[in-house]
Amino acid sequence: MKKTAILLIAILSLVSCKKEKETSIVEETTTEEVAQIQPINDDVLETAVIYEANIRQYSEEGTFDAFTKDIPQLKELGVKVIWLMPINPISHTKRKATGGDFADLIEDEAERAKMLGSYYAVSDYTKVNPEFGDINDFRELVKTAHDNGIYVILDWVPNHTGWDHVWIKDHPEYYVKNDKGEITDPLNPDGTSKGWGDVAQLDYTNMDMQNEMIEDMLYWVKEEKVDGFRCDHIEPTPVDFWKRAITKLRTERAMFMLGENDDPKFMKGSDLFEMEYGWKFHHLMKDITKGHKPVEEFYKLMDYIATAYESDDIIMNFVTNHDENSWNGIVADRYGDASESVLALSYAIPGMPLIYSGQEYDLSHQLKFFEKDSIPKTKGKVWPVLEKLGELKNSNPALHGGKNAADYERINSGNENILAFKRSKEGKEVIYVGNFSNEKQEINLSQEGIYTDYMNNSQVDGNSVMELGPWAYKLLVK
């Protein structure tokens, strides 16, 4: 009996070892496969389109898996970087509901259950939101993106955490406190609340907190093979923290870092962010298309960017994003009949254009922020436009927008309603010309040579009189 037991234990031990070995091989293979894509580099950034993925609202399922199956389609739009809105678990304590109240104030249990809270109220930096799936589903998303030559960056929330975060209990010293010693939500300089009651303000004077934050970011780089981060609301956080964090991240692998801000101080030198938001462009084009500001202001903005930023800084150009859609309206609300002209402009100017989930499917409603919603999935007018713009952005050096961007040159049209400029690099040339008025305009750009009107594939003499209908535009390729 004893011999039999010993034999049985030996057999079980061998089987167990074999299983452990097989599991180890599978894990190693998966990691190796995910890491096969070359590290993100300057050449990729020159021609990249970035896609903001709202996993919750992207599909009826609202899961990683539902988004993953569509990743190959994004290549058709020239997408080379996917930015995933926060994928971390969301705090239940002080969870926000539609309308701005806390979910726990809703008496009806069924209604209360609909309130999923803000993606930006993170309860654990190193876990995934079970609403979207599990870590293996996330890994399959990253692998699929990499297999399709697309990089993945995570939305990181450094300024605050949700009220369920483990640090609230274990490290209250990581948070800003009021005179009573109570942890506070984010406050304005005058001490009033910013209205983000569902999150707690982190204290960046605490170096232990800073170090833990960096370690949590490193987890996603080392273990999950992400290619960078889009960092939320970085203005209150110290520049020195980002120098430390980004340097540490890049000791592991090349990283692409996007900051939600429009202050050049976060981009100075090689150890900070590569790209930040083109908020000034976004707001200016709203004003121009509504007749509140003249076209001339566009050229002033371009001059400001050229002087305020370093030559290798990248601006993310967008016509919509998750905040703009949910809180300020759809694209047509902002730009009206000029919507396509501004979209094409966001591809033509120096920088990297953004597509937000649903934009490619003519999204015509404001997505709910704190509860489940979904985007349309029928290709209409915008998809083929994005497809053509993506092809031009990916293939023509004259639209390079990264650290070695193509030259930009204003074209003086003599018409205050016409916005026109030329991009050029490596002997290639692209001209954008747009009519930002509600009346037909005639113009001679006085450019030598024959151009192709890219969007309709017709020929245009650059030195001839050109007619543009109200809010119309042309991309002329030479």
Task: Sum up the structure in keywords.
globular; TIM Barrel; eight-stranded parallel beta barrel; 18% strand; alpha/beta
What does the model show?
This protein has 478 residues and is of the alpha/beta class. It has one domain: TIM Barrel (Alpha-Beta Barrel). The chain has 16 helices and 18 strands. It has an 8-stranded parallel beta barrel. A 6-stranded antiparallel sheet has the order 11-12-13-18-15-16. The protein has a two-stranded antiparallel ribbon with strand order 4-5. Helix 9 (207-222) runs parallel beside helix 10 and helix 15 (339-348) runs parallel beside helix 16 (382-395). It is globular and about 70 Å long. 43% of the residues are buried. Residues 1-35 have low confidence and may be disordered.
CATH superfamily: Glycosidases
What would the average pLDDT be, to the nearest integer? 93
Q: What is the name of the CATH topology?
A: TIM Barrel
User: Regions with pLDDT < 50 over 5+ consecutive residues?
Assistant: 1-35
Structural class, by secondary structure, is: alpha/beta
Strand content: 15-25%
Please report the total strand number as a whole number: 18
User: Given this structure, which CATH class is correct?
Assistant: Alpha Beta
| Helix share, percent | 25-40%
Record the SSE blueprint.
Layout: H1 2-34, H2 42-47, E1 49-53, H3 55-58, H4 64-68, H5 71-74, E2 79-84, H6 109-114, H7 135-147, E3 151-156, E4 160-162, H8 166-170, E5 199-201, H9 207-222, E6 228-231, H10 239-250, E7 256-259, E8 275-277, H11 279-289, H12 296-308, E9 314-317, H13 322-328, H14 331-335, H15 339-348, E10 352-356, H16 382-395, E11 407-410, E12 418-425, E13 428-435, E14 441-444, E15 450-453, E16 458-461, E17 465-468, E18 473-477
Parallel strand pairs: 1-2, 1-10, 2-3, 3-6, 6-7, 7-8, 8-9, 9-10
Antiparallel strand pairs: 4-5, 11-12, 12-13, 13-18, 14-17, 15-16, 15-18
Helix pairs in contact: 9-10, 15-16
